[in-house]
Structures are given as C-alpha cells and as structure tokens.
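Support request from a user on the community tier.

User writes: "When I paste my structure tokens into the form, the page sometimes reloads and wipes my input. The last time it worked, I copied everything first. Here is what I submitted, just in case something in the input itself triggers the reload:"
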C-alpha cells in the first residue's frame, strides 16, 4: 500500500520503499528501507533516548491513538509500543487477547482492521500468518506496522537490532555477524539478514540442518554478493564474530514435537564459550530466551540483550513519530 496521505485514498502497490519519507506509510518489510532511512530513524531514536532520560516524556503525539493488535503472544514488542506511545503523550487501544475480541466471533482480519482504524491513527499488528500485515495494509487507510507475521518478518525488531549494533560497536560496515539457532522459523533473523544486506558485512549462519536459513532469504543475501557461510558448530564463530545473534528454537512452529525435542538445546552460550570471543563484540538475543544463553553471562559487558530491548522503545518512538508525520 503506499502513499496513504492523510485522506488515505491514494494507493499504488504494496509496501513501497520509503525513499519519499515515512509519513502515512505502512512498515511491512525491511525491504522498504534504504541506508538513509535507517540513519534518519536511528537519529530520531537517539533524540528519543535523550528526551526519555532527561524528562521521561514529550507531548509529540498528544491526541493520537495507536491500536496494538496481537494475535500471538508478546511481552517486549507490545509493551514497548505501548510505552513508546505513552511517552509521546498518545494513547493506546491494546488488544492482546484476541479471544476477548470479536475475532472469536469469526470476524475477518480486514473487518477488524477497518474497525480499529476508525478509532486509531496507526495500527501495530502481530499475526501468525505470513503476509497478514500486507493484507491488513491493503484494506487500511491508516498506517499498519508489522510486529511479526508468522515465520515471515519482524521489521521493527531488525531496526532495533541494527540500532543496538551501531550504538554498541559504533559501526555496521566491516562487521562479522553470526546468527545462531532457529534460522528457519526465526522471523527476527529473516528481517535482520535482509536488512544487513544494505551494509558491507560478513554473515555466518549457525544452525542444525533442519533449522537452516530459508532459501529465499539466503538467495537475497547472496544476490548482494556478501560473503556468507553456514555451519553447525557455534565454536567455529566464537573467536571471530563481532555480533553473536542468538535465537530461541521456536517450539510453537514445529508440527512434530519429537523434532523440536531433538534440536531444542542445540546451542547454549556459556562463559567457557565466551572466553574464546573478542573483547569488543556483542551477544544479542531478541528474547525471550529459553536455554540458549547461560544466565552466567548476563553481567558480561558484551551481553547486549537487555540494552537491545530498551533500544526497542526508542526505535518504536521514532517510527511512530515518523509515520504520523511528527518526527
Ligand atoms: C521474537 C518474536 O516474536 O519473533 N520476540 C520478540 O519480538 N522480541 C523472538 C521469539 O519469539 O523468539
């Protein structure tokens, strides 16, 4: 969907790139972003961080309403969007339990979206099906922000991931990023790998055979002529990675529980493994973690996952302000 101006009428195709700015746009996929867009959002996020640290809140989005619709569980994504809106003076319609909404009466996604956009100025949607946000965007006149569409994408997570890398390591170009765990079902990995294609990075994908990165994502990375490698063994990357991006095995996506049990504990990042890592590097995780990262490394300064989740709020403040034309 596209140039949804404030009257919301004009539509020229789905999820266009953001070269002409964010105002009124849907955020469906990381494929929409350019490096300039990212620099802009990261700059606004820096400002939001300064505002929150200095005074706690602003009234930039006073009078604006966000509908936060989650058809799948969430802690960080939903609460950081709610906090983001609240810290900018706006309000939120939180629909976390769709079983208490008319969805259980059989209401379709387009009808739910049409309903909410008559009350809200922007809609954040998490849904179990790939492409659900794109469908919602097709029906909505107001901006839709994809907060995870099944095993598809999670663009706002990739933005906060990249922002964390930039903030912690001071750059993105030239880095070696290793992604570890469930690369097949992990939508955060799909979005981050695609977004990193805009930079000059090396990527290594570390997973068991059955959880390898999907071919379409791998081909996109290869189309950008970036050096990529796949391995099963996490110790292969420990000494050389600048970013170790660890993910949870996505139990809920497995049709066969026995198969989940086979791979669920395939990687655990321990202090012994961290002994091999560079002094300046980061361990990241979109969270929630199950067993993949030992609690014993939480106090290691290289453990970035708690900083990462705080960054999520600043990035989402920046995005909301941008799509509402207030950044
Ligand atoms: C992730 C998600 O929902 O895809 N969580 C998040 O948004 N921070 C990762 C996960 O559930 O493993």
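"...and here is what came back when it finally went through:"
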């Amino acid at each position: 969907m596209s140039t949804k101006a404030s009257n919301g009428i004009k539509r020229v195709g789905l999820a266009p790139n953001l070269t002409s700015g964010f105002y009124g746009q849907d955020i469906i996929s990381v494929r929409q972003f350019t490096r300039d867009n990212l620099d802009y959002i990261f700059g606004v996020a820096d400002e939001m961080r300064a505002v929150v640290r200095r005074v706690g809140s602003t009234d930039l989005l006073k009078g604006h309403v966000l509908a936060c619709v989650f058809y799948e569980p969430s802690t960080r994504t939903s609460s950081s969007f709610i906090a983001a809106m609240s810290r900018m003076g706006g309000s939120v319609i939180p629909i976390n339990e769709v079983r208490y909404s008319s969805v259980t009466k059989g209401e379709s996604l387009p009808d739910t979206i049409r309903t909410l956009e008559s009350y809200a100025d922007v809609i954040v949607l998490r849904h179990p099906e790939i492409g659900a946000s794109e469908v919602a965007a097709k029906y909505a006149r107001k901006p839709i922000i994809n907060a995870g569409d099944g095993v598809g994408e999670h663009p706002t997570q990739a933005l906060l991931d990249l922002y964390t890398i930039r903030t912690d390591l001071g750059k993105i170009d030239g880095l070696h990023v290793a992604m570890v765990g469930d690369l097949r079902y992990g939508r955060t990995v799909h979005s981050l790998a695609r977004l990193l294609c805009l930079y000059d990075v090396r990527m290594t994908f570390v997973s068991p055979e059955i959880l390898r990165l999907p071919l379409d994502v791998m081909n996109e990375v290869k189309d950008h002529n970036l050096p990529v490698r796949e391995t099963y063994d996490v110790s292969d990357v420990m000494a050389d990675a600048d970013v170790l991006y660890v993910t949870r095995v996505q139990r809920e996506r497995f049709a066969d529980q026995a198969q989940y049990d086979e791979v669920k504990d395939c990687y655990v990042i321990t202090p012994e493994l961290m002994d091999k890592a560079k002094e300046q590097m980061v361990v990241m995780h979109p969270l929630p973690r199950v067993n993949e990262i030992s609690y014993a490394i939480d106090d290691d300064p290289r453990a970035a996952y708690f900083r990462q989740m705080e960054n999520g709020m600043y990035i989402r403040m920046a995005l909301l302000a941008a799509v509402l034309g207030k950044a």
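Agent notes: The reload is a front-end session timeout and is unrelated to the input. The longest helix spans residues 35-55. The CA atoms of residues 47 and 53 lie 10 Å apart. Escalated to web team.
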